[in-house]
Amino acid sequence: MRRCSLVALVSLLMLTVPNLDPGVATGAANGPTPKSPCGVPGAVAHYDHVVWIILENVGYSVVGSRDAPYLNGLGDTCALATNDFAVSHPSLPNYVALTSGSTLGVSDDGEPSVHPLRAPSIFSQLHGNWRALVESMPQSCDRVTSGSYAARHNPAVYYVNLGGSCRRNDVALTAAPNVSAAFTFIAPNICHDMHSCPVSSGDRWLARYVPSILASELYRSDRLVLFITFDENDTQSTNRVPTWVIAPTVPRGGRVGAALTHYSLLRTTETLLRLPLLAAAGTARSMVRAFHLK
Questions:
Q1: CA–CA dist 11, 29 (Å, integer)
Q2: What are φ and ψ of residue 74, in 5° steps?
Q3: CA-to-CA separations, 191 to 176, 202, 251, in angstroms, rounded
Q4: Is 245 helix (H, G, I), strand (E, B) or coil?
Q5: 27-282 homologous superfamily
Q6: At what angle do helices 91-100 and 262-272 cross, to 10 degrees?
Q7: Which has fewest Cβ within 10 Å: 35, 66, 101, 235?
């Protein structure tokens, strides 16, 4: 099996004990993080696990910001989509679009009780082989916003056709994120997603969690792709957002200027997981070839 240099990437943690579960990232209890998580010599793409981390509102202004050294370091060592766009305002329509291929007529941030959705989604496509890890959520599949938990940033709780899988799989984020499902959706709370706290707060949060994911056996065996993006851009009328693509076969420092949207991220994920393309994902531009994911 491929193994990389034992020198840890700057800003990533040194991890020394082998992980017992290939899908559970356990921080300091994982093996050594590669020198660079991307552009790994000898890496062979056979990705069958996808993780999304969705941040909030700041958008493309974070690129090059002194308040986001960790994110910008990922852009230097992995790859960045520079011409990507959210599809709507405010937050909820974007989360619905990301997961169903359509805004489904949602145009506000109403609670799940206001918008019970019965359309197919990436969650229903996977028949339980998915997980949503949501920071500060008081209970599993919580459909009520409270404290620093925003239901509108947790799209799975809006789909009423998921049955009991929502309570089983839509759970609070812990210090050891379990990324063993085919698809893992990660939502920081409204401080750590940069919605209600400075960019630096979110960047520090990413510097704690991302290294654990990259140290998982799934990532180190060329099976997991991590995408980090924003739901929308509140500072530009164009709704431009940066999207970081992190995988062993992704070129280091790669920049892709092709026009992309949230539907491109859904299409790419469904393609990697060998799922039918939902709604607008069927005509969106794929990210697979441009980022060397095949």
A1: 17
A2: -65, -35
A3: 19, 7, 31
A4: strand
A5: Alkaline Phosphatase, subunit A (3.40.720.10)
A6: 30
A7: 66
